[in-house]
Each structure stands twice: as structure tokens, then as C-alpha cells.
Write a structure and sequence with these properties.
Blueprint lengths: L5 H10 L2 H7 L6 E3 L5 E3 L2 H17 L2 H10 L8 H17 L2 H15 L21 H18 L4 H17 L29 H11 L2 H12 L8 H6 L14 H18 L2 H17 L25 H4 L11 H18 L2 H18 L10 E2 L2 E3 L1 E2 L4 E5 L5 E5 H17 E4 L4 E3 L5 E6 L5 E8 L6 E8 L3 E8 L8 E4 L2 E3 L7 E8 L4 E5 L4 E5 L12 E6 L2 E6 L19 E2 L3 E3 L5 E7 L2 E7 L10 E3 L2 E2 L2
Parallel strand pairs: 9-13
Antiparallel strand pairs: 1-8, 2-10, 3-5, 4-25, 6-7, 8-9, 10-11, 11-12, 12-17, 13-16, 14-15, 14-17, 18-19, 18-21, 19-20, 19-26, 20-24, 20-25, 22-23, 23-24
Helix pairs in contact: 2-9, 3-5, 3-17, 4-6, 5-6, 5-7, 5-17, 7-8, 7-9, 9-10, 9-12, 12-13, 12-15, 15-16, 15-17, 16-17
């Protein structure tokens, strides 16, 4: 919030929310998102976002049916998570597009859910006399998050805040030290040798957010209790992260990737309110270790082999090192990738760390879009790098489809759209001095304010990621000195940067370049990223002999794959012709379907490769991303 006039102060005091939220945040973020609808994407990613919003959040998804689980009970554990995930992504989409039809859908969904609130204050699929049990806390968490996102991004209705408080007050009455129920005694997650109940502690995030909304100390105390229990039955996850235990070893039973990242989102929110460096270091250590040891070439993590074969590819599995392991059958759950984006977003805002942008960009352009159905109606449950690309088999429920037949809704169908909705949230931001910060280079129009609160428009003109030429046009109300910060991708080894026609020194890959000057309307920034296609070595040290005898290809942010539908020899060994620095002489050509195609030179003639994200895996296509060497 930049400037508040007297009338706004009166409203904020009356509403008792935003003004308190500002005072309850002890640690100020280094970066913050621009206000709603100030970032409008105009290119490739905007089309992807609109497909998902129109055909899924405004199309297929069964809002009313997911509310019925709270009226009549659920027939399978965790089905109560669905409503909150729908409303969460829908609210972020509304923050981006202000779509009136979407708002009506969300208004009705919230009113419907509030009508299910029980006399004890809970909104639960479980009657009060059985609370809390199995997946109850996980489901109630997502109701809280859905309502909080609606409140933050759609409309601040007093009845929503009242319900949020009643729900968490009910949780406080039920959970805690004896004689209350321990939060670690409620859950379902398990492995070969027992249970760990990690999912229940992830309710930490919405509890802290409610404290930030209200300033009422009992909610912060409750969050402190959750953290004091350590996150799961068999290990203190916070101590493990602080001590740099590798993610796949943090829990012996079931180091569930999605839930661990969700838990640490809550820890970062708690750190903002308490400023305890232990909590900050826990989060930073987890980020570094997940980035190094779990995240694959397409930006996601988790696998079944070799460490957790019974948990469907949803656990941390030293996946970055094992990603060429031919025994892997399930890996990289979409829920994990999206929660990784959100966790990275927290640390990007908190620290202004450009590595977080690298991780977000990697997953957006590869794993996230590569998991989406071409029409936007859902996401793959897991993805493979080699083999059958997509796999919709996993936890979920079949609803009656509006188009006839049955609609299979999974957790990943519901989480994928939120990943897309996060793109405009972080694409262009501002720092603590209100300087603009450009993180992504999709064509876009940004209408915001300068540090002196005057109008500022940035127009990003590009064909990114098809090529690396980017122009940023500046329009200001009055000439003014401020800094424009530009994230230079880590893959761009030789970036050209110019202020108008003035060539500037080469900026450092993986860092922010800063241009401080007196800006006037008509000024331009010109960037040319180093999009040369490059051979990538497979990681060494995996459990399978010769698993490091593979190479991959990357063009700018895009990871390339061979496709069985166009190449019968898609998985055969091949020798790529590259120069001494590993660069391959190729450029993309757009085919009749708008898909980028690369002719890759090999010792036996050229082969055709495609961006991982552009290959339609929903008709059984098999791919080869890590290419075996002869």
C-alpha cells in the first residue's frame, strides 16, 4: 500500500483488516506484487491462462458438488480439499482479469459454502462429534485458504472474515496440548513402516494469514503451537531443514514433497510476523536443498524410485540426481510443482532472491504448461521426462460432466490453474522503494505508479520465448529519477542490454540488472537474451549405473524432447553435433499448429525436437528428454 488518504483510513479502521495486517507484519518484504490488474500479459502465457480460466474455472469444474461434501459427508478421504482449491485459483484469476462472470461464480460458491457452517464454528465434512479425524484438518485448511484468497483478491465481505475467525477458534478449541488432541494425531499419510501425518500441520499458513488480517494474538499463539510440534510424527521437519538434512531424508516414512513445501509456506508467513532468524534459515535451507537435489530439468521434483516406490511419485526422492533413472515410473506431481512456485514466490518477495525467479520460470515454461491438457481442461497428475509424458491416474473423484459422461477431477487438476494464476502475480513487481522489477519477458502492458506516485506505463514487446529480443517502452506522467530492475535469466550467458541506443555493460546471468536514470516518455530498454541451444549434461551420482550417460537440450528457458508421434527412433542413442562449448547450431521454426520445431544436427543427419511443453502427451505420445548417448 503506497499512499492512504483519510477516507481510506476510515474504511480500513472500520473494516479492521488491512490496516491491522500492515502493523502485524514485522519483517517487510523486499519485493511485492503490483496491485490487481496492473499487469496485463498479451502473449503466449496469457493464452494459456485464459484457456484454463475459461474452460476449467469458469467451465467444467463442479463448485456446487464440492460443497455437498460438507453437507452430506464425503465418500473418500480428502475430498473436502476440492472446494478450497477451486476458489483459490479462481480468486487469483479474478485478481488478474477482473472477469464479472468469474466473480459471480465465486460469490455464489462462497455463499454456498458459508451456509454449511456448523454450530461449533467449523466448516467440515465431519460432524462435530467426530472432529478432528483423518483428512479433516487438511480439508478445513483448504476451506480457510479459499475464503482467505476470496477475501484478499475478490471482495472483503464481513461475513467471510467472521466465518474465518469462527473456524479457527473451533480448531483452537480442539487441537493442542493434552487434554486436547495433538495435531500430529490427525492425518493419513504413511509409508512402508508407519504414519507421519504431515498434512495436518500445513494448516499453519491460513492460521498465520488470519492473524495478519485481524491482529488477534490467539491465532499467532496457535501457529506457534503448530510449529512447536515439528510438522510430523517421526521427525521435526523444521530442525531437519535447519540442519540441512536432504529433503528425501527429512522423513524416513514419507517425505511428501507437496505437503512439506506447503508447511514451509506457512513458516515463511510466520517469520514475517515474528522475525526469528531460525525460521528464516529453515526456509532458506529447504529452498537450496530442494533446488539442488530435487528439481529436475523441467522445474519439478519428487519420484517413486529408488527410495519411495509405494507412494506414487509424490515424495522427495533425490530427484534432481535420479532424474535419468530408467526405473522411475511416476515422478513430478503437479501439486508439488505448483507449491514449489508458491514457496519460491514467498522467498522472492521476502528476500528479492533472483534464483527464485529462475526456478519459477523453469517450471512455468516446461513442467507446468507441459502438464496441462491442450484445451485447458485439467492437468496431468504426474509427468515423465522419458516415456509416456502425461498420466492422469491418481487420487480424485468422478463427477457428472456438463458435457456428458464423467469428469475426473484430481488434486492436480485443481492445483495446476493456481500455478498459471501466479504468473502475472510475479511477472512484474516493485521493490520497497516502489521501483519496477521485471521478472518475466512475456509481451505485457504494466500500468502502475512511480516512486513519486505518478503514472507509469511499461510496455514489454517481444516474441519470447520464441526468440530473445525484448523491447521495454517507458511512458511517465512527468520525467522522474528511479530505477528499473531487470531479471537476467541464469541460462542467458551473454545478454545484450541497451538504454535506447546506448549499449550498457553485459549484465550478469542470474542477477538483477539495474538502470537508474531520469526516465521520460519515449525511453526504451532493449534486451537480447542469449537463446543459443545448449547441450546439458546429466547429473552424476545417481543409484543406477550409467544413468549419467545422457544429454539434454535447452533453448533459452525451453527444454526440448523427441516425440514418438513424429520420430520412430525417438529413444535411440544419438550423437548431437555441438561446438566445444556445447552450443548446437539450430533455431526454431513454427509449424502449422503453432508448435516450435528444432532441427538438431547429429552424426547421422538431423532429428526434430520440440519444446517439452508443446508436445501433446494426452494421446499416448512417448518422449525422450534425456537423450542416450551411443
Amino acid at each position: 500500500m503506497k499512499k492512504i488518504v483519510f477516507s481510506q483510513i476510515c474504511f480500513l479502521i472500520f473494516s479492521g483488516t488491512i490496516l491491522l495486517a500492515q502493523s502485524n507484519i514485522v519483517v517487510k518484504d523486499a519485493l511485492e506484487p503490483l496491485p490487481a490488474r496492473q499487469v496485463k500479459l498479451n502473449g503466449y502465457l496469457d493464452k494459456i491462462i485464459n484457456l484454463s480460466c475459461e474452460n476449467w474455472n469458469k467451465g467444467d469444474v463442479p463448485y456446487k458438488e464440492t460443497v455437498e461434501f460438507f453437507r452430506t459427508g464425503r465418500k473418500q478421504f480428502a475430498l473436502g480439499e476440492m472446494w478450497g482449491k477451486l476458489v483459490r485459483s479462481g480468486s487469483l484469476f479474478y485478481r488478474y482479469n477482473g472477469d464479472a462472470k468469474l466473480k459471480k461464480i465465486l460469490d455464489d460458491a462462497v455463499a454456498d459454502m458459508l451456509s454449511t457452517q456448523r454450530p461449533n464454528g467449523s466448516i467440515s465434512c465431519v460432524p462435530p462429534e467426530k472432529q478432528p479425524e483423518t483428512s479433516d484438518l487438511w480439508e478445513r485448511k483448504y476451506v480457510l485458504i479459499g475464503l482467505e484468497d476470496y477475501y484478499d483478491y475478490v471482495e472483503q465481505k464481513p461475513e467471510v472474515l467472521k466465518s474465518l475467525k469462527q473456524q479457527v477458534d473451533c480448531l483452537i478449541s480442539q487441537l493442542g496440548k493434552p487434554p486436547k488432541t495433538s495435531i500430529l494425531d490427525v492425518g493419513w499419510s504413511h509409508g512402508n513402516h508407519g504414519k507421519n501425518h504431515i498434512e495436518s500441520s500445513t494448516i499453519l499458513e491460513p492460521v498465520v494469514r488470519l492473524y495478519k488480517m485481524t491482529g488477534e494474538k490467539r491465532y499467532l499463539d496457535f501457529a506457534e503451537y503448530i510449529i512447536s510440534e515439528g510438522g510430523c510424527l517421526e521427525a521435526n521437519l523444521f530442525d531437519a531443514a535447519y540442519n540441512n538434512v536432504l529433503p528425501y531424508k527429512m522423513c524416513k516414512i514419507y517425505p511428501k514433497a507437496y505437503d512439506t513445501l506447503s508447511l514451509f509456506e506457512g513458516l515463511v508467513e510466520f517469520y514475517r510476523c515474528k522475525n526469528n532468524d531460525y525460521h528464516r534459515q529453515c526456509a532458506l535451507n529447504l529452498f537450496e536443498n530442494v533446488r539442488k537435489y530435487e528439481i529436475t530439468i523441467i522445474g519439478n521434483g519428487g519420484s517413486d524410485q529408488p527410495y519411495h516406490p509405494t507412494v506414487a511419485g509424490e515424495a522427495f526422492g533425490n530427484t534432481a540426481i535420479e532424474q535419468t533413472n530408467p526405473n522411475i515410473r511416476r515422478m513430478m506431481e503437479t501439486c508439488t510443482g505448483v507449491t514449489w512456485i508458491k514457496f519460491c514466490s514467498h522467498l522472492l518477495r521476502l528476500e528479492g532472491n533472483p534464483q527464485c525467479v529462475d526456478e519459477i520460470e523453469k517450471y512455468i515454461y516446461n513442467g507446468l504448461i507441459g502438464a496441462m491438457k491442450p484445451d485447458g481442461r485439467g492437468f496431468s497428475y504426474v509427468n515423465l521426462l522419458n516415456g509416456t509424458k502425461t498420466n492422469d491416474h491418481g487420487w480424485g473423484w468422478h463427477f457428472n460432466s456438463k458435457h456428458g459422461g464423467k469428469l475426473h477431477v484430481t488434486c492436480c487438476n485443481l492445483n495446476g490453474p493456481e500455478g498459471l494464476a501466479y504468473i502475472p502475480y510475479i511477472a512484474v513487481m516493485q521493490d520497497a522503494q516502489y521501483n519496477p522489477v521485471v521478472n518475466l519477458y512475456e509481451p505485457a502492458t504494466i500500468t502502475t505508479k512511480t516512486p513519486k506516485d505518478k503514472s507509469l506505463t511499461l510496455e514489454i514487446v517481444s516474441d519470447f520465448p520464441q526468440n530473445g529480443k525484448v523491447k521495454i517502452k517507458v511512458k511517465v506522467e512527468n520525467p522522474e529519477e528511479f530505477t528499473v530492475k531487470l531479471k537476467i535469466p541464469s541460462w542467458s550467458e551473454n545478454t545484450q542490454l541497451a538504454d535506447g541506443n546506448l549499449q550498457l555493460p553485459h549484465p550478469q546471468a542470474g542477477k538483477y540488472a539495474e538502470i537508474k536514470k531520469t526516465w521520460k516518455s519515449g525511453d526504451e530498454i532493449n534486451l537480447t537474451f542469449d537463446m543459443r541451444c545448449k547441450l546439458i549434461d546429466a547429473p552424476k551420482g545417481g543409484s543406477t549405473p550409467n544413468s549419467d550417460k545422457y544429454k539434454a537440450l535447452q533453448y533459452g528457458p525451453l527444454v526440448l524432447s523427441r516425440n514418438s508421434e513424429t520420430d520412430p527412433n525417438y529413444n535411440k542413442p544419438v550423437t548431437i553435433i555441438a561446438d566445444k562449448n556445447g552450443f548446437v547450431d539450430t533455431k526454431p521454426i513454427t509449424n502449422a499448429n503453432g508448435v516450435l520445431v528444432f532441427d538438431i544436427p547429429t552424426s547421422n543427419g538431423s532429428i526434430k525436437m520440440f519444446p517439452y511443453s508443446h508436445i501433446n502427451g494426452w494421446h499416448g505420445a512417448k518422449i525422450q528428454t534425456w537423450l542416450p548417448m551411443p
